[in-house]
Write a structure and sequence with these properties.
It is built from 7 helices and 2 strands. It is mostly helical and 215 residues long. The protein has one domain. It has a two-stranded antiparallel ribbon with strand order 1-2. Strand 1 and strand 2 form a beta hairpin. Helix 4 runs antiparallel to helix 5. The longest helix has 28 residues. The two termini are 19 Å apart.
């Protein structure tokens, strides 16, 4: 049953990745918004003097999936640090993290985004990490070295999700944006360093305590 479920999920992700890649390459040459080349589902409602107004429906789905992934990631890491695993939440985390990338690829890059787009590079990295974690979980069954590979992949997947969440918080939340308007100021760097330190500690703890138990 697990193998069948894993194969079904992989087929679904493969189909979504194929379509997302196609939409990604339909973007204009500089990687920015081009309404004539992007399906309506991903378009901004209108443009005023070249500025984007409104939000594409896919962005709403993308944000919802992000929140699901953050919740699942917290539950999975807490369980691993306690020496246990929560199989259902593992699946939710892997699927939602993959969907973050797949729903993010077709979205337009903000003006001024460097090329290649760091967000798309990170998205591609997360897909690789999710694939490795799924391989360790559903094919390797966490036996022998697969246990360590799984823990490292899960910690990295959740860390990248939180890294982006912290960056978005400084971009979107008023008082945080005031502290670090360009994302290069000490408050932003300190927040990201603290986040990194927490995940290093969590990863080491999970590696030491988790020995293959579920619960």
């Amino acid at each position: 049953m697990c193998a069948y479920l894993a194969a079904t999920v992989c087929q679904l992700l493969g189909s979504l990745l194929h379509r997302s890649a196609g939409w990604f390459w339909r973007l204009s040459g500089d990687g920015h918004y081009n309404p004539g080349k992007i399906p309506k589902l991903f378009r901004y409602d209108q443009q005023v003097d070249g500025a984007k107004v409104g939000e594409p429906p896919m962005l709403t789905l993308h944000l919802a999936v992000c929140f699901i992934a953050l919740l699942a990631g917290a539950l999975v890491l807490i369980a691993l640090c306690g020496g246990r695993r929560r199989p259902a939440w593992d699946a939710v985390l892997l699927l939602s993290t993959a969907l973050i990338s797949l729903t993010g690829f077709p979205l337009a890059s903000p003006p001024g985004t460097p090329s290649p787009d760091p967000a798309r590079i990170l998205g591609a990295m997360e897909l690789v990490i999710v694939a490795i974690a799924a391989l360790a979980l559903y094919v390797g069954h966490l036996a022998s070295a697969w246990r360590g590979i799984y823990i490292v992949a899960i910690v990295l997947a959740v860390y990248f999700n939180v890294f982006v969440a912290v960056a978005q918080a400084f971009l979107k939340i008023g008082f945080l944006h005031t502290l670090a308007p360009t994302g290069k100021e000490p408050p932003f760097l300190i927040a990201q360093l603290v986040t990194l330190a927490l995940f290093v500690v969590s990863g080491v703890t999970a590696f030491k305590r988790y020995r293959g138990h579920t619960g």
